[in-house]
Amino acid sequence: MELLWNTSEYTRESNKKVALKCLNNSQNINEFLNEVITIFMIGVYGFHYLYSFLSN
């Protein structure tokens, strides 16, 4: 889903590859952010978007 900021509506795009990662109450997310930067800089796995789900 993609949030359209001007209209506050969601749209669904099918057949899109994503990566999911749970940080498990992490206080230090530097390693995760470095991984995100690496994925976007070199295009690992062909992911276009990276979504992170944070849970308590």
Structural features, described:
With 56 residues, this protein is an alpha+beta fold. The protein has one domain. It has 1 helix and 4 strands, in the order E-E-E-H-E. Strands 1-2 form a two-stranded antiparallel ribbon. The longest helix has 13 residues, at 30-42. The relative contact order is 0.25. The model has no long low-confidence stretch (mean pLDDT 66). Keywords: Membrane, Transmembrane, Transmembrane helix. The chain crosses the membrane at residues 36-54.
Q: Could you list some keywords that capture this structure?
A:
single chain; 56 residues; alpha+beta; two-stranded antiparallel sheet; 1 helix; 23% helix; 29% strand; membrane; transmembrane helix; transmembrane
Model regions low in confidence, pLDDT < 50 over at least 5 residues: none
Number of strands: 4
Let me know the largest β-sheet: 2 strands, antiparallel
| Helical content band | 10-25%
Report Rg: 13 Å
Shape: extended
Total DSSP helices? 1
Strand content: 25-35%
* Order of helical and strand elements: EEEHE
Q: How far from one another are the termini?
A: 23 Å
Overall number of domains: 1
Sheet with the most strands: spatial strand order: 1-2
Q: Supply the helix-strand structural class.
A: alpha+beta
Mean pLDDT reading: 66
